[in-house]
Amino acid sequence: MSGYDNGFALIVVLFILLVIVGASWCK
Question: Where are the transmembrane segments (predicted)?
Answer without folding.
Answer: 6-26
